[in-house]
Amino acid sequence: VEVHYYRRVDYKTPAEFINKNLLPGEKVFSTIVPVAFYLKKMDVIYLNKDHPDFMGVLTEDGVREIWTGSKLIYDFDEFIRKIADEAPTGIWLLIRSPSCPRVKPEEVNLFKRFKESEVFTSLDGRVKVLNIHFKTQPRI
């Protein structure tokens, strides 16, 4: 019976959690574009250049994501550096869960690096919310 249903990912509850707990000055980063629909703000989106939608979401000479206007980063090392730069003010990071069928290697890497910062999991278990906050810039 279930085979004819389109499984929908729960993007809403992670976004609501962030919206409720976001403090002034904190940034919202994501590897998942659709979650932006439910967020009050989105600061940075990571999208790998190999993603099938990559060319369709670029704007402003490739520095912004077309639907949200958020900064678009497509180099993973640059994304990690951006996290390190912003960590002292606090970052909310949305990634696919390592158990999600469509998880990307970069998301697994992020989860391993920042697992201790996990604060919320979507109702379907497919989206993780990490609250990364270091008093000083981490060595990454």
Fold topology:
Layout: H1 12-21, E1 27-30, E2 44-46, H2 54-57, E3 58-59, E4 64-65, E5 71-73, H3 76-86, E6 91-96, H4 105-114, E7 118-121, E8 127-132
Parallel strand pairs: 1-2, 1-6, 2-5
Antiparallel strand pairs: 3-4, 6-8, 7-8
Give a written overview of the molecule.
- The protein is α/β, with parallel strands linked by helices.
- The protein has helices at 12-21, 54-57, 76-86, 105-114, and strands at residues 27-30, 44-46, 58-59, 64-65, 71-73, 91-96, 118-121, 127-132.
- 25% of the residues lie in helices and 21% in strands.
- A six-stranded mixed beta sheet has the order 5-2-1-6-8-7. A two-stranded antiparallel sheet has the order 3-4.
- Strand 3 and strand 4 (64-65) form a beta hairpin.
- The longest helix has 11 residues, at 76-86.
- The termini are far apart.
